[in-house]
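Figure S7 source data.
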Amino acid sequence: MTVQPLPLIAGNWKMNGLVADGLALASALGDRMRAASPAPCTMVLCPPATLLGAVAGVLEGSGVLLGGQDCHSEEAGAYTGSVSTGMLADVGCKFVIVGHSERRRDFDETDEMVAAKAAAALSRGLTPIICVGETLDQREAGQAIAVVEQQVKQSVPAGGSGVVVAYEPVWAIGTGRTASTDDVAEIHGAIRGVLGEAAIPILYGGSANPGNAAELLATPEVGGLLVGGASLDAESFWQVATAG
Ligand code: PEP
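Tokens for the predicted phosphoenolpyruvate complex:
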């Protein structure tokens, strides 16, 4: 009998939360995970860099894992404002999001830069969550599959083992519009075809919430969810986390 891995449910807090908010949210989720038996999912919280150390303390012993929202591809040096993968590992991170569409859009991050960040993460024992996804214009032009396949080919380091891929259609992020399960299944199938390795989880992200999480998690090739807005409220995120 094949044992299905638990869904991976990652919360991307983006640029939200002061220390008190972050600790309250993390501790509410940590408490729920401690009390849950069996664990409903593999839960990862990705707070802003300023909160990583404090959140790590609160999550200790809860089974909830910590992730960064971005990293630099270099280990150290004159890169003002950046955080290295070694620094993330040092404060207890096990994951790091790379290539989020907001960084591709606002910081002109290319697939090559994303691949370098992912490789840096792997070299430090972190699991990169590599984000890909088409814009609305690209979808409307019938290019969604080709765009995403190309991003996967160029953003996932050679071999791909040890990574997680997140399909996040840009038009679904923070908009309340979710991709249909048919669209999700089609794109995830295409990503699986490129990866060719069954062990790499493929997450869906884009307005995932308590109302659609179960359906998304039941979609073929969906190994979990990357959640933005709904991860900022403990009850909403817990409902997503327990929907699988
Ligand atoms: C995200 O930013 O990764 C995301 C999926 O955001 P939201 O859930 O708010 O659409």
